[in-house]
Amino acid sequence: MKAAAKVIFLCRDSDGFGPAIYDALQPNPNSSLQRTESSFDLSLERYGITDAKASGEIVNFIDSQGLSQVSIVLLQNYEPPVAAYAVNGVLASIIGENSSDLPTIVLPLIVAAQKLRREMTNLTQADRKITVYGAQIGPKTDFTEAVVSGIQEAPPSLQVACETLACLLELVCVLGLPTAVLVGSSGQRQAEGTTDQELEALYELGEFLAGKLGLCFSRDRIHWNLKEKSKGTQEPWRALYG
User: Fold this and answer.
1) What is the band of 239 on the pLDDT scale with cuts at 50, 70, 90?
2) pLDDT of residue 178
3) Which domains does the chain have, with CATH numbers?
4) Burial status of residue 205 (CB atoms within 10 A of its CB: 0-12, 13-18, 19 or more)
5) CA-wise closest residue to 22 among 39, 41, 43
């Protein structure tokens, strides 16, 4: 899979945050970057899985010299154990044979504000107004430092609801990939639909992310598709740092 050295990794999660960010990230109007989109279907047969593939879409932002500067991967959501194999397959394809030049992963997440506050003690009134938190996982680089600079560190015990993204966090640790995690803080969801706080959290996170990557976050390209979350028993959530 052809990808840039900077990869934003998203999942087609049930809340619809991943697809919304994927659609909204666009080149800046005054930029020479071109947005090219394609799909992928990676075989998982080497893991003994024959009835599923690692499927999704990838966007590359190509400069005037034909070089990809930023990529966005939007992977389908999977349940265990396929989730781990699918994420590993995508990362292996991105890394390719040249493991000496590892890509940097950028992972944006949306977490309910009350969960963040529960994990963080002694919050001041100013702290409670913070909408974006950051964390670095794996080797620190100038780029990962720049991505999380100027924002408060996310609590290491913070948990990730999406199984596919939880697997990603574990695998970037195993593979030693430089990773910057950006966590947006949303309000409490109402019984149905999407709250204004969730949309505002998405806007804040998306615009912060776009600014760090030299892109534009276009709100009018967001087509929200919030699926009803399962009321059944779910797998235990995993901590941010695996």
Assistant:
1) low
2) 96
3) 6-217 (3.40.50)
4) buried
5) 39
Q: Copy the structure tokens of residue 78.
A: 């999977």
pLDDT digits (tens, 9 = 90+) for 96-151: 855 668 999 999 998 876 555 555 555 444 444 547 899 999 999 999 999 999 89
The average confidence (pLDDT) of the chain is 85
Distance CA 35, CA 65 (A): 14
Respond yes or no on whether the N-terminal peptide bond of residue 80 is cis (omega within 30° of 0).
Answer: no
Tokens matching residue 223: 């087509």
State the residue for tokens 């390719």. 96
The beta-strand segments (E) located in the chain are 6-11, 25-27, 34-43, 53-62, 68-75, 104-112, 132-137, 152-153, 159-160, 179-186, 215-217, 238-239
Q: Which of 217, 221, 201 is nearest to 109 (CA)?
A: 201
Contact 110, 205 (CB under 8 A): yes
**For range 189-218, the mean pLDDT:** 82
Q: At what angle do helices 17-24 and 196-213 cross, to 10 degrees?
A: 50
**Alpha carbon of residue 76 to chain centroid:** 12
- All residues at 6 or more sequence positions from 146 whose CB lies less than 8 Å from its CB, including other chains: 212
pLDDT band at 234; cut points 50, 70, 90: very low
Sign of CA dihedral 159, 43, 103, 214: negative
pLDDT at 14: 86
